[in-house]
From TrEMBL:
Residues 291-849 form the Anoctamin transmembrane domain. It comes from the Eukaryota. Coiled coil: none annotated. This is Anoctamin. Belongs to the anoctamin family. Its main location: membrane. PANTHER family: ANOCTAMIN (PTHR12308), ANOCTAMIN-6 (PTHR12308:SF21). It is a multi-pass membrane protein. The gene is ANO6. Residues 65-288 form the Anoctamin dimerisation domain. One of its GO terms (cellular component) is plasma membrane.
């Protein structure tokens, strides 16, 4: 059997032909062949038990077997029994019943064994146990190219360069007495004809429960349930969507907090909770091999990536925290910050209004802001930005090596080329009407514009509340109150976060519609295509406000006498008096913090609350027996159809914040590290205790997230260089320090006088009528005000044009970007080639495994051929001997 033996799937959407069920209509064209139904009915009637006969499993609520205690349950189907409905409604669900009966008959015809049991909590529910017999296991293990042991691996393994740390790291590893290491073996794809070559000690345990669940789900996804004309309709997914079944899932092997007393139960869920999900083990490494064995390679590779990313974040967090401490200590010693706060310097500089409804303000009103800015805008930040650009390269290169080791250990090296079957929906004809993706992008841009307008409106309204008199005494800063700029930044950040959360749902639907229209062949292709689209939407959604603050806000504002207006009405928003960098830092802190809090609410509180409500609603006072294992699992939450997509998306978005804008927020790695330490345990607790067991899936790597991470790392170099060049004041300060400080009369390089040189002069009599709003009473005795720019003063032949200092700064910014980018990209290129993607030891072990596989399986096939040819050869030999005897007799005659 191979993937070409799959039935054709109908072209209708999942819910297309279920509307008539609700109306009690029966499709006359639908055919439900009767050849399977008598067998199905006889088996089913012989296995359905009454509640009076349920003593066996009530004494063993964690039993994982059929009622005979021999056949293990590999999958569970749940449906609502139509025969127990009210009489007037019963006829409405007959089509569902016929489809289900034909589907279950098809399953038995394909080799599965079924057993039905009524619920002990809900009289209307029925549970169908599914068992995959040995012969069927062998068949589908070959179809799915499942790799199994052929020989013990005796190749000596070279110790890692980090092995000398084992004396310390052993305290952070899971308890080896509870979670034992598996025997390292060479593996090969299973073949039925070579059973004697595989290490089969016991048939029941040769294929793991997760492998059997994969086989069962593969069959469930391809079993027909109806024939309509020349078309066979099939698949458990469509039956779930149409309400024929309420749930389909593999079983947990025990309760998470109670060890099972069943002899055949490995208690892997209990061990995972104790060593992985329990809060007391937050400092321990994850038991990846057990996670992979219990949940499959796809869950395992995600947990491995999250753990590796968190481990690498520790180094970045230490350096970022050091940079923050350095900046915090500098805020009281910075020369230009002192000048801002000095009553004789900043206290005598009158600044021009920043909007048409704003008044004059004193420079020293930004004293606190300037001190806070020093924490994030200093030379240490430059060093940290370069460090992070190199860090991301090291992170990705070492992750590739680690991933290659996992591919070998978990037998997924050639998964994409050999093992992955096509999706059942692959051959379906798509009739969906998709939404133009441009519409989604337009909505994103509209939300960005709305936030910008909001920022302008709030800034103006708050500014009007600060009434200014006509003398300088009333221009003294009111430090006890929040400035309009700060209030606007915080509230706009919160609004931006809310908009992001609302639009996420819309973007998900648009991305799914487009991907369904493409009809990718395999599930991996489908998820990769969906991932790229979803990340594009989320990239713009999450990062747009940060890019606006960093590279747009305050860049095109003109000067006080000739400001630039947006849409001819709104004056372009200027940066906070302390600069746009502090606003960018505020925005990042709000989005990162808000996102972490919101995700924890979704991941912890919602599943817990749903399960609590469901158990309360299904609780029966008269029922004192403990429900069986399959019914306990039904009360848990189903896993999302998108699988781990949102888990990856959450971490990759965080990775973007940590790398793309780290020059403005050195504490981002620290916050990310703290969040991830909780995230690992929250994911473990959620997966182990609140959700049904996932259908185990194989995965070779993290899929499309790998090139996305590589793209982010490349973009991060450019964004951080541009933030330092265009958003912070670092380059203007460096230019002043090395070039213009001598022109200001200093005998040596110094930052004295920088504030005065960075502010241009403006004659207040040159204000235009548009900027002189009648609602604002401005002091008439102020003739000169200052603004942040490098322009010639009034009265100069080139009045208000850019001066030489401006062009020096522009040249320095461009030179800085080019030099930094080339240095970092060259370093990344060298590191990428110095660090090989696949370790040498893994390459050698792969060669050895391929050689042994060819030798062992070749010998087995050769013996098989010899065995089949032996009767033919013996017959030919006897005929040849008889021919020789005849020749002798003839010669004698």
């Amino acid at each position: 059997m191979n993937e070409n033996d799959i039935l054709e799937m109908d072209s209708a959407p999942e819910t297309e032909d279920f509307d008539d069920v609700q109306l009690g209509m029966i499709d006359e064209e639908a055919v439900y062949p009767q050849e399977f139904l008598p067998t199905y009915q006889s088996i089913k009637e012989g296995t359905v038990l009454n509640k009076a006969d349920q003593v066996e499993y009530n004494n063993k609520p964690d039993s994982l077997f059929f009622n005979d205690g021999i056949r293990r349950i590999d999958f569970i189907l749940v449906y609502e029994d139509e025969d127990k409905k009210e009489f007037e409604k019963r006829h409405m669900f007959q089509r569902r019943k016929k489809r289900r009966e034909y589907f279950e008959a098809s399953l038995m015809n394909m080799g599965l064994e079924l057993e039905a049991m009524p619920s002990v909590l809900n009289d209307n529910l029925m549970y169908v146990k599914v068992h995959v017999p040995w012969d069927v296991q062998c068949t589908y293990a070959e179809v799915l190219h499942i790799k199994v042991p052929i020989d013990v691996n005796t190749t000596p393994f070279r110790p890692s360069m980090w092995s000398f740390f084992n004396c310390v790291t052993k305290y952070f590893r899971p308890n080896k007495e509870l979670i034992t290491e598996e025997t390292d073996s060479f593996t090969a794809p299973f073949e039925k004809d070579c059973l004697d070559r595989f290490r089969i000690e016991k048939k029941d345990n040769f294929f793991t429960p997760s492998m059997k669940s994969r086989m069962a789900y593969y069959i469930l996804s391809r079993a027909p349930y109806e024939i309509r004309g020349n078309m066979k309709k099939f698949g458990i997914t469509k039956l779930l969507g149409g309400g024929v079944y309420k749930a389909a899932y593999p079983l947990h092997d025990c309760r998470f907090n109670v060890k099972s007393t069943e002899e055949s139960c490995p208690n892997e869920r209990f061990l995972l909770y104790k060593e992985w999900a329990h809060p007391k083990n937050f400092y321990k490494m994850q038991p990846l091999d057990l996670i992979r064995k219990y949940y499959g390679e796809k869950i395992g590779i995600y947990c491995a990536w999250l753990g590796f990313y968190t481990f690498m974040l520790a180094l970045a967090a230490v350096v970022g925290l050091g940079c923050f401490i350095y900046g915090y200590q500098m805020q009281e010693t910075s020369t230009w910050s002192k000048e801002v706060c000095d009553p004789e310097i900043g206290g005598k500089i009158v600044m021009c209004p920043q909007c048409d409804l704003c008044n004059y303000w004193m420079l020293n009103s930004t004293c606190d802001t300037s001190k806070k800015l020093i924490i994030f805008d200093n030379f240490g930040t430059l060093v940290f930005a370069v460090f992070m650009s190199i860090w991301v390269t090291v992170f990705l290169e070492f992750w590739k090596r680690y991933q290659a080791e996992l591919e070998y250990e978990w037998d997924t090296v050639e998964f994409l080329e050999q093992e992955e079957p096509p999706r059942p929906e692959y051959e379906a004809k798509c009739i969906y009407e998709t939404t133009n993706p441009v519409t989604g992008i337009v909505l994103i841009l509209a939300s960005i514009v709305a936030i910008i307008v909001y920022r302008l409106a709030v800034f103006l309204s708050l500014s009007l509340k600060l009434k200014h008199a006509g003398d300088l005494k009333n221009l003294e800063p009111i430090k006890e109150y929040v400035t309009p700029q700060m209030a606007t930044s915080v509230t706009a950040g919160l609004i931006s976060f809310v908009v992001i959360m609302i639009l996420n749902t819309l973007y998900e639907r648009v991305a799914i519609w487009i991907t369904d229209f493409e009809l990718p062949r395999t599930r991996t292709d489908y998820e990769n295509s969906l991932t790229l689209k979803m990340f594009f939407f989320q990239f713009v959604n999450y990062y747009s406000s940060c890019f606006y603050i960093a590279f747009v806000k305050g860049k095109i504002v003109g000067y006080p006498g000739k400001p630039v207006y947006l849409l001819g009405k709104y004056r372009n928003e200027e940066c906070d008096p302390g600069g746009c960098l502090i606003e960018l830092t505020t925005q990042l802190a709000i989005i990162m913090g808000g996102k972490a809090i919101w995700n924890n609410i979704q991941e912890v509180l919602l599943p817990w609350a749903k399960n609590l409500i469901f158990r309360y609603c299904t609780r029966s006072a008269s029922q004192k027996v403990e429900p069986p294992r399959w019914e306990q699992d039904y009360t848990l939450q189903p896993f999302s159809q998108l699988g781990l997509f949102y888990e990856y998306l959450e971490m990759v978005i965080q990775f973007g914040f940590v790398t793309l804008f780290v020059a403005s927020f050195p504490l981002a790695p620290v916050l990310a590290l703290i969040n991830n330490l909780f995230e690992i345990r929250v994911d473990a607790w959620k997966i182990t205790t609140q959700f049904r067991r996932f259908v185990p899936e194989k995965a070779q790597d993290i899929g499309a997230w790998q090139p996305i991470l590589q793209g982010i790392t490349i973009l991060a170099v450019a964004t951080n260089a541009m933030i330092i060049a265009f958003t912070s004041d670092m380059i203007p300060r460096l230019v002043y320090y090395w070039s213009f400080s001598l022109y200001e009369g200093h005998t040596d390089h110094s930052m004295k006088g920088y504030i005065n040189s960075s502010l241009s002069f403006f004659n207040t009599s040159a204000f235009s009528d548009a900027t002189m709003n009648a609602q604002v009473e401005r002091p008439s005795n102020i003739t000169i005000c200052r603004y942040r720019d490098f322009r010639f003063p009034p009265g100069h032949p080139r009045e208000y044009e850019y001066n030489m200092y401006y062009w020096h700064v522009v040249a320095a910014k461009m030179a800085f970007i080019i030099v930094v980018e080339h240095i970092v990209y060259l370093t990344k290129f060298i590191l990428a080639h110095v660090i090989p993607d696949v370790p040498y030891t893994i390459k050698e072990r792969l060669k050895r495994e391929k050689y042994l596989t060819q030798v062992i399986l070749h010998e087995s096939k050769l013996k098989l051929v010899t065995k089949h040819l032996k009767p033919f050869v013996e017959d030919m030999s006897s005929q040849m001997e008889a021919g020789k005897e005849n020749e002798v007799e003839v010669s004698e005659c």
